[in-house]
Structures are given as structure tokens and as C-alpha cells.
């Protein structure tokens, strides 16, 4: 079951596939990851421009994983207001030196730049992976709060991401991390964050 399929950004001919992308079983959108120098360059050198335009035209949601690129992703969100964008993992990655050092402020600030765009939402995922503390991961919780307050409950998404850190938390802890430890979320807020918001975003119903 694939909620978000991957696509090759270096091949503009793939634009022809996007209008019927969701006709594939279990496919609700596209996920793109910028984790190499060449892929990062595609954000600014024009090679990926076809993709954002084609996804917007096809009304296809896009999840993206990239860190410290707030200005670049802001320009994409502004140029393509009809494109539903979902920032993966709060804009963090285990490969980032800041994350490895437990310093989240800089990367989170880049993600916060996107909060003003109504077509951008954020996945509040991977906290157990990034945190340098045991459950309930208090070192990263203030940053989750900042993102939640900036984006709002209808543009924030919980997710397990459990396959990346079986040794860091149980499935139940990943749920109760949000449902029992965040006093800045009302019960209605949690309803949106824990499922309703992503169902709306991806038209997953």
C-alpha cells in the first residue's frame, strides 16, 4: 500500500504520468526527497520546475523532504498556490549536523517560513528519531509546539514513522506523545492533527 509514490525529478517526460497518478491502487500523491547535492541543485537550477507545475495542474498532493530551504520552498509555494504541499518530518533529517547535535532551532525556523502559505502543511513526525531524550522527548516538544501554533491544527499531521526507530519508542508511545503530553492542543485540535487534517489534505476518503 503506497500512499505517496516516488517520482524521478530529472525526467520531465514523467509529467505525462501525473494526471492519472491517483488511479494507481492506494496512490494518493507524490513524495520527493532532496538528499544529495544534485537533487538539492534541482530546487534552484530549473530542472525540477516542470514537476511543481505538472503536480499543480494534476491536483496531486506533494510531500517533500528537504532541510534548511525555507526561502526556496516558499517561492515554490507562492508560485503554485493550487499545489498542496506537505513538509515531511518537520523539515528535519537525521543526516543534518544540527539534528545530530540536538539543535533544532535553525531547521525549524526554515519550516516556519512556510506557515503563511495556505497550501502548505507539515508532518510533525520522527520526534523519537530526532530527540536526544527518552519518551516523551521533551527536548523537541517546544519545537513541535512552535510549528503547531504557526500552522494550526488543520495543517499539522501526526504519523508514526515507526520503522525508523523501533528501539526509540513503541507504537503506543508515539500516539500518547501527542494525546497525553501536549497541553497546547485541545481535544478538537488533536482530532485534526491525529487524522482529520491529513484525510482532508490528501482527499483520503
| C-alpha termini separation | 15 Å
Low-confidence stretches: none
Percent of residues in helices comes to: 25-40%
- Tally of individual helices: 9
Tell me, rounded to a whole number, the average pLDDT.
94
Note the overall shape.
globular
In angstroms, what is the radius of gyration?
17 Å
Strand tally is 6
Along the chain, the helix and strand elements come as EEHHEHEHHEHHEHH
User: Strands of the biggest beta sheet: in what spatial order?
Assistant: 1-2-3-4-5-6
Strand content bin: 5-15%
Largest sheet: 6 strands, parallel
Structural class: alpha/beta
Question: Layout of SSEs?
Answer:
Blueprint: E1 4-6, E2 29-33, H1 37-42, H2 49-57, E3 62-65, H3 70-79, E4 85-87, H4 97-100, H5 105-112, E5 120-123, H6 127-130, H7 141-151, E6 156-157, H8 171-179, H9 187-201
Parallel strand pairs: 1-2, 2-3, 3-4, 4-5, 5-6
Helix pairs in contact: 5-7
